[in-house]
Amino acid sequence: MTERPHFQLYVAGSWTDGAAAQVMTTQNPADGQDWATFACAATEDVDRAVAAARRALQDPAWRDLTQTARGHLLFRLADLVEQNAERLARLETTDSGKLLAETAGQTTYVAGYYRYFAGLADKIEGAVLPIDKPDMHVFTRREPIGVVAAIVPWNAQMFLAATKLGPALAAGCSVVLKASEIAPAPMLEFARLIDEAGFPPGVVSVITGDAKNCAIPLTRHPDVARIAFTGGPETARHVIRNSAENFAVTTLELGGKSPILVFDDADLDSAINGLIAGNFGASGQSCVAGSRGLVQRRILGTLVEKIAERADSITIGDPLDPATHVGPLCTRAQIKRIEATLARAVDQGAIVHFGGAPLDRPGNYMQPTLVECAGPDISTLEVELFGPVMSLLPFDTEEDAIRLANDTVFGLGSGVFTSSLARAHRVSSRLKAGICWINTYRAISPIAPFGGYGHSGYGREGGIEAVLDYTRTKTTWINTADTPMANPFTMR
Fold first, then answer.
1. Cα→Cα distances 36→3, 91, 330, Å
2. Predicted confidence band at 2 (pLDDT cuts at 50, 70, 90)?
3. Which of 311, 302, 323, 301 is nearest to 356 (CA)?
4. Catalytic option among 287, 330, 373, 436
5. What is the DSSP string of 269-317?
6. What are the pLDDT digits (tens) for 91-126?
7. Which of 263, 257, 286 is nearest to 433 (CA)?
8. 190-220 burial, b for 16+ CB within 10 Å, e for fewer?
9. Residue 229 burial by Cβ neighbours in a 10 Å radius (0-12, 13-18, 19+)
10. Neighbouring-strand partners of residue 252
11. pLDDT tens string 186-206
12. Catalytic residue among 253, 372, 382, 384
């Protein structure tokens, strides 16, 4: 019998099973079997990681490193990610069920994120200010904000960690990264690359564990200056309350119910690819899943027929198999939630054209599902399902489409398929979403800001502004006059 791999916490530059020596087991979603164990952090481990991060900020090995040298460390990390991409991808696929075809490509792509932020490390600049006061030299500088708590979910760990670690380290911060306890293996293994890249001890710690012993003490910690969180809205509310304890600056990326608008002048094959990418890609387990398909009524029937035809060619199976299109969901709980939501939708008058049930086989497999909705109040249009469920709702006019698209508390992604450039500009400018894709879907780049409106969170990850968000501005005034400061009771 093959011995199960065991993953330890990485705290203050060393490996540990944690103060409580608590061990949990993780399951392979492809077969439902236990495959690995991992150490769980106790509150003492959180305290030790934050203390090490705080010390690292004052350690000359990190504090006095030039911005260019910080960039070199990130370039080294990017090279290591690229060199170990296959191993990390297989770990992520085994632990979360995400397709190897996606994790392999994404892990390699993640190296580009670290290179992008590495290149920005020496572009963080201050300014000399033209103050209208004689004999005053005034300038600003950007300093690291401090200790960062970065919290990532299981569904795109390598990518989501890069969007936080990259800018934070480029800015000179130190980071305590909390991986999801549902599927932590790839992030705990990634910590070995942090170590190998040569980051000083404490600059990055990687931990995992439950909310009570890990996430809550981390987000409440008085020495945490900034929190970068990706997850669900309910958990985010707790994070916000906890951050009030220490006035930590917070970035939240919370997913949502992204609309994809298909107008009757669209290239239907392109639109169908966009809808499939937005709903069945990554088995629907994406924060930008385009799970509200708004289709102009005249073409709805044709679109349903074509999507049903395409469904016959979708291969469901082992996520390690390159021929697989849709793999398992990460947990059984997702399947139960999807089944309950679909049953409610049918009671509300929705039509399930295909799918709608789990597969009768080991593992967490759910059939790709197409739901036609009679109105906007159908449950599958309202609930973030995190599964391969596409819901279509008809609209008549452009105004109807915009109104329906914005009829949600969320606002992360959106898509528009049309052959009219004028319409693309009109509609995209009125959609209440942080991202809008025109005639494409799920395209990303480290250069482009990523984030949402409303209950999809606030703050942006990606682009130069992401790096600046991990800094704070200091203004320095220098009296250049030959005479000393005079009257202390007047402002200069």
1. 9, 10, 15
2. low
3. 311
4. 287
5. HHHHHHHHHHHTGGGG--TT---EEEEEHHHHHHHHHHHHHHHTTPPB-
6. 999 999 999 999 998 888 999 999 999 999 999 999
7. 257
8. bbebbbebebbbbbbbbbbbeeebbbbbbbb
9. buried
10. 229, 458
11. 999 999 999 999 999 999 999
12. 253
Please indicate whether residue 436 is annotated as part of the active site: no
Q: Please, what is the average pLDDT of the chain?
A: 96
Which domains does the chain possess? 6-255+452-475 (3.40.605.10), 259-438 (3.40.309.10)
Select from 414, 391, 385 the least CA-distant residue to 402. 414
Distances (CA, A) of 439 to 391, 419, 427: 19, 8, 13
Tokens of 126: 């201050």
- Mean pLDDT value across residues 269-276: 98
pLDDT classification of 373: cutoffs 50, 70, 90? very high
This prediction's pTM: 0.96
> Quick check: is 214 catalytic?
no
Residue 8 token pair: 């330890």
Pairing of strands 415-417, 437-438: parallel
**Mean pLDDT along residues 271-280:** 97
User: What are 95's two structure tokens?
Assistant: 């632990």
Q: CB under 8 Å to 111, separation ≥6 — which residues? A: 78, 79, 81, 82, 85
Cα 31 to Cα 281: distance, rounded to the nearest angstrom: 20
From 15, 318, 29, select the one nearest 189 (Cα to Cα): 15
